[in-house]
Write a structure and sequence with these properties.
Shape: globular
Strand order of the largest sheet: 1-7-6-5-4-2-3
Bound molecules: pyridoxal-5'-phosphate
Number of strands: 11
Helix content: 25-40%
Order of helices and strands: HHHEHEHEEHEEEHEEHHEHHEH
Number of helices: 12
Strand content: 5-15%
Length: 368
């Protein structure tokens, strides 16, 4: 069986360093908000080329806290609208709802699966305060165009970078450094994955960073003094330390995945398969390699019978979820096509060349 994502194997490659790191943290006797977190935050801010990185408990909290901080700073208020892609993972949308703001769904581009700048302007109203682009599957959105619209209408830009650690544009800018602030997830299966939950916010805005640091720690800047009704959302020492170990190899792992993606793009020739489209090589970090096909269930079943595990990201669009009943009757045709047809192939730093060959051969034999 070729696994979709072999997390066991991925983390085995780091075993020696991770075990050593565990011992160091264990023996330090300090487990929350200490030197390991500070070191990782500095490394990751440096990696993204932002002034600040703030570790938090998970990717959803990262997005929630950014929006919450803008509310505390009186830049956003209840009922304001944020534009977000209609085909994203639901967390991007939940972060808006959780703050009593209104998510306004924007149809993606069917080629890139990312927010279509063409569809943004017509949805901007007097209540719009921000755009929340998601660099879906690991590919940067068209950030030049998005930033231009944001500037024109004086909107904040909050990037959802949960799938795009290290994606870099022709201009040399990295994911997390285009907008005003960005949320990252270090969920184990993400490009940079912890051994549990984790997340971070990057920003170069001092005031925003200071507000978020208080909000994630019970709303407190100074111990036992609380300025806001905050929450507890901290990245613990152990996960921060593990992430420092894995960050050192992130670019190497991404490069390995780019080579797999290049093989898929070149060698999958079956006409029943629609391959993902990319603009710039380095702007995609291939969190997922997502193909489309008319009869997805049939293809997935065929691959499964041939011992190849695939996953659907994602089977149900957000507007068809029970959680958003109020949207169930709305139509987002592009998003619906995507959700009905996408299938993610295995791609990972431990997928062997032989496995890639097997996957390509089986797909090329499908339906012929
Ligand atoms: C994973 C993910 C999140 C949420 O991250 P968690 O760490 O699981 O909370 C948010 N947005 C997108 C696009 C994601 O893929």
């Amino acid at each position: 069986m070729i696994k979709f994502l072999d997390l066991y194997q991925i983390n085995q490659t780091y075993k020696k360093d991770l075990v050593q790191t565990f011992e160091r943290v264990l023996d330090s006797g300090w487990y929350i908000m200490g030197a390991e977190l500070k070191e990782f935050e500095e490394k990751f801010a440096n990696y993204c080329n932002t002034k600040h990185c703030i570790g938090v408990a998970n990717g959803l909290d990262a997005l929630i806290l950014i929006i919450r901080a803008y509310k505390e700073l009186h830049i956003f208020k209840d009922g304001d609208e944020i534009l977000v892609p209609s085909n994203t993972y639901i967390a991007s949308i939940l972060a808006i709802s959780a703050n009593n703001l209104i998510p306004v769904l924007v149809e993606p581009n069917l080629e890139t699966y990312n927010l279509d700048p063409e569809n943004i302007e017509k949805l901007i109203t007097g209540k719009t305060v921000a755009i929340l682009p998601v660099h879906l599957y690991g590919q940067l959105c068209e950030m030049d165009a998005i930033m231009e619209i944001a500037k024109k209408f004086n909107l904040k830009v909050i990037e959802d970078c949960a799938q795009s650690h290290g994606a870099i544009s022709y201009s040399g800018k990295k994911a997390g450094n285009f907008g005003d602030a960005a949320g990252f997830s270090f969920y184990p299966g993400k490009n940079l994955g912890a051994l549990g939950d984790g997340g971070a916010i990057t920003t170069s805005d001092d005031k925003l960073a200071e507000t978020i640091r208080a909000l994630l720690n019970y709303g407190s800047h100074i111990k036992y003094e609380n300025r806001y009704k905050g929450i507890n959302s901290r990245l613990d020492e152990l996960q921060a330390a593990f992430l420092s170990v894995k960050l050192a190899k992130l670019d190497e792992e991404t490069e390995y995945k780019r080579k797999i993606a290049e093989r898929y793009l070149k060698e999958i020739t079956n006409e029943k398969i629609i391959l993902p489209s990319t603009t710039e090589r380095d702007a995609h970090v291939w969190h997922l390699f997502v193909i489309r096909t008319a009869n997805r269930a049939d293809l997935q079943n065929y691959l499964s019978k041939n011992d190849i595990q695939t996953v659907i990201h994602y089977p149900i669009p957000p507007h068809k979820q029970d959680a958003y009943k109020e949207w169930n009757t709305l139509n987002f045709p592009i998003s619906e096509i995507i959700h009905a047809q996408v299938l993610s192939l295995p791609i990972s730093p431990v997928l062997s060349d032989d496995d890639v060959t097997t996957i390509i051969n089986k797909i090329n034999l499908y339906g012929v």
